[in-house]
Amino acid sequence: MDLDELHQMVLLREVASVDNIEEFISIFTQVQPSLIDNKTFEAETIPILHEAIRNDSFRVIDYLLDQKVPMRPFLFQEATKNTSYRVLESFLNHGFDINTPIDTNNPPAIAGIATPLHYAAGKGLLDSVKVLVDGGAWPYTKDPSGLTAIDWAQMNRHVSVVEFLRSLPAGDSFQQFTDAPGKHFTPVALETLLRETGLKLV
């Protein structure tokens, strides 16, 4: 990239932060030919997508995802932190795996892995929790310390989130993390779920 192209990449981040989609597309179209390979494309566009997520720039997010900017788990974590559930919807509409574990060092989980639903529940973001559940997130998935999204919400005193998650049907099984290579979850029988959570079928 020459100096002018580098300046345009900086400008793209600024425009992304205010969701000026017309100007963004105009600049992006000019610099796109310089993103000559996948590695360069990823390195230059992921920070722009990150900036758009942090600033609720929904139209820019949709455009970048349409351009196949990689949906990295840490970006979805940032979207989960966002108080606007529309960012989550953008990712889900573009095929992001709703139960992909994301790394987090945020309490109450130990440093390790948790699902987006854990994170949204722990923050008390009820609208985001509903979007995630509607998208297929499973509320009884356990993080490495054995906590579910309900536990995260309860520990942070988010009563409305706890009530919503507890109102969901238990289903036939729930998911739990495993260290098996290439596999994040393993199904656990309903009997185990009821025993471990104290839930009762009515």
Automatic annotation (TrEMBL):
InterPro entries hit by this protein: Ankyrin_rpt, Ankyrin_rpt-contain_sf, Multifunctional_regulatory
UniProt keywords, alphabetically: ANK repeat, Repeat
Pfam family for this entry, one: Ank_2
Top-level taxonomic group: Eukaryota
Gene3D superfamilies tied to this protein: Ankyrin repeat-containing domain
Entry keyword annotation includes Phosphoprotein: no
Placement of ANK repeats on the sequence: 115-144
Keyword Nucleotide-binding part of the UniProt annotation: no
Name by which UniProt lists this protein: Ankyrin repeat protein
Organism (species): Penicillium chermesinum
